[in-house]
Amino acid sequence: MVKGASTGGDSNLKVIMIVEGESDKILFSKQREWFDSLNKKVEIIPADGKQKMASKAQKYYRLAEMKGANHIIFMPDLDTDECALITRRLLKMDNMQLSITIVLKHALEAWILADRNCMRESINQSYNLSGYTDYEMHPKQKLHSLFKRHLGYNPSSVEASSKVAPYFSISRAAENNKSAMRFKLFMEGI
Length: 190
Known about the structure:
Layout: E1 13-19, H1 22-29, H2 32-37, E2 40-46, H3 50-55, H4 57-66, E3 71-75, H5 82-91, E4 99-102, H6 108-114, H7 116-123, H8 139-151, H9 157-164, H10 170-174, H11 178-189
Parallel strand pairs: 1-2, 1-3, 3-4
């Protein structure tokens, strides 16, 4: 958490999630039922890339304020320095009222790979998982190679997200991915 007002346990919590792009938005948009079960009204906004997420952090914060959000979550992949840039830009702001969280994840594809049921349904094959997917060196490449091997083609990121989104569960991913577990626990706790 960077800084801002505490929102602990508000039953009508409005959350703005800033994700890297359209493929992340597709995946998280299919989690609406889970967000609703937590009494969270979540709006997902794609940043059109991690660099724009960082360079426009203050703009996204102001947008969340205008939309009446209680909380804003930035979700960059861990493979960049955007977390530090987002934090620096936000800390320069005055009169911050929203609670801010930056959720670092190795890569969203690692969350997808962690959900055995999702992968089994998406590739129409059994899917074996050994250990936490946080340690998968190249999760995006692994996901795309599984599609190519089992479905006969290598989809774009948006196509891959559209394929897995109906089957993906943050709760199941959390069983095999530590950053997904942190996100799940965080969402349950705010």
